[in-house]
Structure formats: structure tokens, C-alpha cells
Specification:
The chain has 1 helix and 33 strands. By secondary structure, it is mainly beta. It binds fe (ii) ion.
């Protein structure tokens, strides 16, 4: 028998509520505590890694599993969890080359609804279309026009209804920016010249610009050749910069803005001041993956503002709060427009400790942060849902899955965005637990007129 100290601790993503669930279930007419607002009519879907065979070599590398709840008329009609049926899920072998195949990867990170399609996303694959009942329909390559992967964080412009996104690769061309129009047609693809392959999780959009992050977590080919499934590491020499591209212009108009070396997974939002300065609010890591990803550690990030004055070649940087946070979100109606509020999850220690302690609501004008602690519970990302186009920035609800350690089950918790610390508006009681995952989205049942084209938010058809 091996001595205790030689036992290998499971990685953090296989412990507690990070661990996968084993069944796909469907449950109807879910019990609700409180009252679901009658204005809420639609579908909340959240994606996350849930390794089908019980093991994965990294937190980011489990099969995608969607957890959805349909809400209508004050009732929670159903809950479903479904794997995204990718080629890997279906049993295709993983090889070094398959890591480069955009029709191969795990679709485990987020969900977007655009132009009558719901798509599960991961940054190294094509979008995977799913039905309203969470069944996998197949990759969406935009009629054969999309030749790269699609970020898990596309931006839907609330003015034009366009979906802006990018794909990155570990071989040239490393980074390509794309725009799909409000009807879902891919209308622009622009290669962004960067000198090396880096891990690029997110980007930013303003009313007039797209902003790309060239940060020093670099692809490591020798490590990849050893079979490592996450061959990226911190680089002391790569530097850090933001590429600012006018929307609608070619790469010849791109300008690079220097920043202090750091890593950012998530941009909360970006916008332009009246004088043309560009502002980005991000969850910023001082450094990330020095020596490569760790089995039982993750670095910590803090809410940080970059401001690029007109004509500047270097961004101003301000730490807005030194608490450890991740999953920053805004009211998506303000994507690319000025925002005054950011929601984020605070962690005790790093994400690897698995302790998301509270939801924070940053009022960036007053500098105040409202808190919602979760005693005995573990929250996931919260998504802001507004009741109407004309509603105020924090008029509406926040919804997210919350795991209760005592019962080992989860609820969909709906909070009043204007009073996040108050009693939840509603709790949808689920018969199972929902593992800690990544990103969710709310898909309203009724179309909302957005932009100048036909609404991209029209009813998402069922199977
Ligand atoms: Fe993300």
C-alpha cells in the first residue's frame, strides 16, 4: 500500500462542484421559491466543462455540457442538461493535429444567440449550433465562409445587430477578426498581424473600434510536441499591447497601444468617451501560467481599467478594486457603449480554491461595490437580464446557478439587479447539481428590435 503522502491529489477541476455530473436529465415544472417575474420569458443556457469519461487534463478541456432552464409566464417550464455532441464527444481520437482542426474541439465555454441561431462556443472551434432544447445540430461555418475558430466571447453590437468576433490559431495567420451582419451572414474577415501565437480569450468592441489583446501567454510548440494539451506559458519577452482597429477598416489602420505585461481572460466592456478616449474594464492578472498551467493553482485577477487617450501610444492603467474577481459582466444592451455598472464574482484565494464567495456589483461612478455573500453556497457567473429596451442599467434581474453544499443540489437564483443583497426574487429548485461552469446567456422569447436591420433576436425556433 502506498503511503498517504504519495497519493496524487485530484486536480481542482475534478473536486467539489467542479467535478462533472454523470447524467443528462430533463425535468419539467420545477418548484420555485418566491415569484418569477412575469416579464421574464425565455431561456437561460450556461455552458461548462463536464468530461464525459470522468477525467480531463485541464479545467478547460472537458466536454461541453449545457444547462438550460425555460421560463414562461412566471413558471420554470423545464430544466435540461445536455452534452454538446462534438466529434470528440462522439469518440474521435485526440491527436496533435486534431488540436488545429476547427471542426473538432469541445464547445464547452459559452453560448451566444444571434440571427435565429443558438451556438455553443469554444475558442478553438467553429460555433456549434444547438436547438432550443439543447440538442446539437452541427457546426456553423457561415455557409463555408468562416475559416477560423470563433472566440467564446463574440460581441453583438446593440446598435447594428452585427456579431463581431475573432478566431486565433497557433499557426499563421494567428489572428483574424470577423463580422457577421444582423442576418447572420459573414460579411468581413480581416487578418490582424501579430508576431506570435498567444492565447486570446476575449476582445473588446466600442461604437467605432474593435480592440485585440496581444498578451504574453504564448503558444509553446516544443511542449505541444510532447503531447501537452494546454501548451501555453507566460513569456518574459513577448510584451503586451492592445491592437485598436476602426470598425470597417483594414489592418493597415490598426494601431498598437503598449500596456504593462499582464493577462486578461475577460473584458467586462469597452466604450469611447466624448473626446475619443477608449476605455476598457477588464479582469487583469499580473501574470499567468509562469512555467505553464498548474494542476492545483490558478492566478488571481482584479478589476482594472485601461484608458487610451486620443493619440496615445500607451494606455493608462487603474486598478479599480484589489479584490480577486472573475466572470465580469455588464448589461449586454450596453456592449460597446458607456457602462456604469460591472457585476463580477469575488473569490477567496484563486479560482483553483473553488471558493466563489460573493457577487459584487460595482457602481463605477460612485466607486461603491454592493456585495451579495453566499454563505454555504457556491455561485457561478450571473447574467443580467433587462425587462425592456428602455429599462435603466440596473433595472432588471441577475440570474445564475448557485450550488448548495448541504443538499448537493443547485438552484437558478434570480436577483433584483437593483438590490443584489436583498432576498432573491426567485429560486428555481433543481433536482440535481449544476457544476461550476463558464458562461451563460439569456435568450428572450420575444424579439426585440435592435439596430437598423431586422431584429437578430427573433424567435429561436425549436427542433
Ligand atoms: Fe470566458
Amino acid at each position: 500500500m502506498k503511503p498517504m503522502q504519495d497519493r496524487v491529489e485530484p486536480p481542482f477541476w475534478m473536486q467539489g462542484n467542479f467535478a462533472p455530473v454523470t447524467e443528462e436529465i430533463t425535468a419539467f415544472d420545477l418548484p420555485v421559491d418566491g415569484a418569477i417575474p412575469p416579464e421574464l420569458s425565455g431561456l437561460y443556457i450556461r455552458n461548462g466543462a463536464n468530461p464525459r469519461h470522468g477525467q480531463s487534463s485541464h479545467w478547460f478541456l472537458g466536454d461541453g455540457m449545457l444547462h438550460g432552464i425555460a421560463i414562461e409566464g412566471g413558471k420554470a417550464q423545464w430544466y435540461r442538461n445536455r452534452y454538446v455532441r462534438t466529434p470528440i464527444y462522439e469518440g474521435a481520437p485526440r491527436t496533435l493535429l486534431s488540436g488545429l482542426d476547427i471542426r473538432y474541439a469541445l464547445s464547452n465555454t459559452s453560448v451566444v444567440a444571434h440571427a435565429n441561431r443558438i451556438m455553443a462556443l469554444v475558442e478553438n472551434a467553429l460555433p456549434m449550433e444547438i436547438s432550443r432544447e439543447l440538442e446539437t445540430r452541427g457546426f456553423n461555418d457561415f455557409g463555408g465562409r468562416l475559416a477560423t475558430s470563433c472566440t467564446a466571447h463574440p460581441k453583438i453590437c446593440p446598435v447594428t445587430g452585427e456579431m463581431h468576433f475573432f478566431g486565433y490559431r497557433v499557426v499563421p495567420p494567428y489572428l483574424t477578426y470577423h463580422v457577421a451582419d444582423a442576418a447572420g451572414a459573414l460579411v468581413r474577415s480581416v487578418e490582424i498581424p501579430v508576431k506570435a501565437a498567444t492565447m486570446i480569450h476575449d476582445f473588446a468592441l466600442t461604437a467605432r473600434h474593435a480592440i485585440f489583446m496581444d498578451l504574453p501567454v504564448v503558444f509553446d510548440m516544443p511542449t505541444a510536441m510532447t503531447g501537452s494539451t494546454m501548451p501555453f506559458h507566460w513569456s518574459e519577452s513577448h510584451g503586451a499591447r492592445l491592437g485598436v482597429l476602426p470598425r470597417g477598416s483594414g489592418a493597415d489602420t490598426l494601431r498598437w497601444i503598449d500596456i504593462e505585461p499582464c493577462y486578461v481572460y475577460h473584458v467586462a466592456n469597452a466604450f469611447e468617451e466624448a473626446n475619443g478616449a477608449i476605455v476598457l474594464d477588464v479582469a487583469r492578472y499580473d501574470e499567468h501560467w509562469r512555467g505553464g498551467p498548474k494542476r492545483n493553482a490558478f492566478d488571481t485577477a482584479a478589476l482594472t481599467r485601461w484608458r487610451i487617450p486620443p493619440g496615445a501610444t500607451r494606455a493608462e492603467e487603474t486598478c479599480l478594486d484589489d479584490r480577486s474577481v472573475e466572470f465580469p459582466r455588464i448589461d449586454d444592451r450596453r456592449t460597446g457603449l458607456a457602462h456604469g455598472i460591472v457585476y463580477a464574482l469575488a473569490t477567496e484565494g484563486s479560482l483553483a480554491d473553488g471558493v466563489f464567495t460573493e457577487l459584487l456589483k460595482y457602481d463605477l461612478k460612485s466607486g461603491r461595490a454592493d456585495r451579495r455573500p453566499f454563505d454555504g453556497e457556491l455561485p457561478s457567473e450571473f447574467t443580467m437580464v433587462s425587462p425592456a429596451e428602455a429599462a435603466g442599467e440596473d433595472e432588471g434581474w441577475l440570474m445564475g446557478y448557485v450550488y448548495d453544499r448541504a443538499s448537493a443540489r443547485s438552484d437558478l437564483v434570480i436577483l433584483d439587479a437593483g438590490d443584489i443583497g436583498g432576498k432573491p426574487v426567485a429560486r428555481v429548485r433543481l433536482p440535481v447539481r449544476v457544476p461550476q461552469g463558464f458562461h451563460g446567456t439569456w435568450i428572450a422569447s420575444e424579439p426585440r428590435q435592435r439596430g437598423t436591420a431586422a431584429s437578430p433576436w427573433s424567435w429561436i425556433g425549436s427542433n
